[in-house]
Each structure stands twice: as C-alpha cells, then as structure tokens.
Amino acid sequence: MKNTILISLILMLFAPFHKAQTLKNCSDCATRLIKPEQISELNLEEIRILTNEIYARNGYEFENGRFQEYFESKPWYSNKKNNKSISLNAIEKQNTTLLQSRTKILKAEKDLIINQLKSFKALVLADKTNELKTQFNFTYNPQDGKENSKLLKEVFSKINLDDVNYYKNKGLHSVKVDNGFVQILYEVSLEDQSVNLYYNYMTHSKIIEGFDEFSDYHSETEFMYNWQFELKNKRLEFIRLVIAG
Predict the structure, then answer these.
(1) CA geometry: angle at 70 spanning 65 and 71, to 5°?
(2) Residues 185/175, Cβ–Cβ less than 8 Å
(3) Strand 235-244 with 165-167, pairing
C-alpha cells in the first residue's frame, strides 16, 4: 500500500515534465519533428510566424515588409536574396505540413463560429424560438425581462458579421452610437471558442456637459446585456445572459 502511494506521488510530481511544452520558436525545426500538442494552444498568427520562421532560417526573403523586418531583427537571420535556391529538408517539410494543417483547422473554426452566428441571427430576427432552443440551447427567460428579445435584435441590426477582424486570438466588431442623449455600444467579441454579444447603454452623450437642468439624463438608467456563447463539439451553444445595472 505504501509503495503504491509512493509511486503515485512520484508520477504526480514528474507528470508536468513529460508534458509537451508549447513551441516558442523554430530553432530546432530543422532537426526535430513538432508534436501536435506543442502547437495546440497557439493562435493563427503565432503559427504563421513559426511557419515563416522555418523558411527564414533558410534565408528566405519575405515580400511582407513586417515579416522581413521582424526576421532581420533576429541574430540568426541571413538573407540569401534568392528564394528559388531555398530547399527545405525532410523534417522541415513535415513540420511545415503540420503547421499548415493546424492553420486550416483554426481558419475553419473561425468560419464555423461566424456562420453559426449568422444562423443564430436569422432565427432571432424571425422569432424562431423553437429552433433557437434546439440548435443553440437558447431561450428567452421571462426573469430577464421583456427587453431581452428587443435588445438582441437591436445588436444584430447594428453589427456586421461580415466585418469581424482578428488580432491574435481575438475577434471584434463594435459599433458605438451617440444620439445626442445617450451612448450605446453594440458589440460582438470573440476569443478562442468564446463569443460575447453586448448591448451597453453606457453613458450620456458627449455633448451633455453635466447632470443639470439642461438634460433629463440620469446615470441610474445605465445598464448592459451580455449574451455569452461557447463553441462545443463544432456547435455554438448559449451559456448565459448577464445583466448589469
């Protein structure tokens, strides 16, 4: 019994050392194969940098000025000024194939989220409550107030799902409207497999100088609705609605 406990403790202590570390650079990509788990936590841009690094370490010259400047800042980079003469070895080719495969998966995941958001939007605007429940696990809870459906439709009337852009693992399309009385934020934000929709009745108009006799605006009326989703098993699933204010 004591031996069993001792062995379990040893395995627990050394388990983290056997776990593949996230790949930080491609200094060994010419001699060592990348393991899938080493890049499982990386975003598209990080994988693109690693892919380009394999070529950069062979002296590749990049048309993209930012990539060229980035690699020129590395002490190991030496521009051959003749990309046609560059040839990857067998290990580099396998690593490049793995990185490109992961890139396709991540791009497909982003497209899937946007396409499912478009489907969700269509059902919301058409008041298809049964389909919203079966396809997205989404329901309008009476406890959340009658404004739930109205505000969600307003969000979709303002944001453009065809104009969501990404930086690293975050995507965003945000619209702020100031109608001279209140500033309202309409937003869709994405991070990895999480999606958030926002209606934020956030503050008074920028033309209002203060809470005085010239305005009927009261900060007590400010509030926010936040609809939260997660991509699970290639299906966008509603998690919760958070209301503040």
Answers:
(1) 105
(2) yes
(3) unpaired
Round the CA-based radius of gyration of the chain to a whole number and report it. Answer: 25
- Which of 232, 53, 238 has its CA nearest to residue 144? 238
34: exposed, middle or buried (C-beta count within 10 Å: 0-12, 13-18, 19+)?
buried
CA–centroid distance for 119 within its chain = 19
Q: Tokens 């995941």 label which residue?
A: 109
| Mean pLDDT across 210-218 | 72
The Cα–Cα gap between 160 and 155 comes to 10
**Owner of token pair 């991540």:** 106
104-144: per-residue pLDDT in tens?
999 999 999 999 999 999 999 999 999 999 999 999 998 88
* Residue 43 near residue 24, CB atoms below 8 Å: no
Give the pLDDT confidence score for residue 143 in this predicted structure: 86
Which amino acid belongs to residue 81? K
Task: Give the residue ranges of DSSP H helices in the chain.
Answer: 2-18, 44-56, 65-72, 90-125, 129-136, 147-158
CA 2, chain centre distance (Å): 47
Q: Provide, for the chain, the percentages of residues in helix, strand and coil under a 3-state DSSP scheme, each rounded to the nearest 5.
A: 45, 20, 35
What domains sit in the chain, N to C, each tagged with a CATH number? Answer: 15-109 (1.20.58.1690), 128-244 (no CATH)
Phi, psi of 176 (to 5 degrees): -110, 125
Query: Which run of H or E residues covers position 53?
Result: helix 44-56
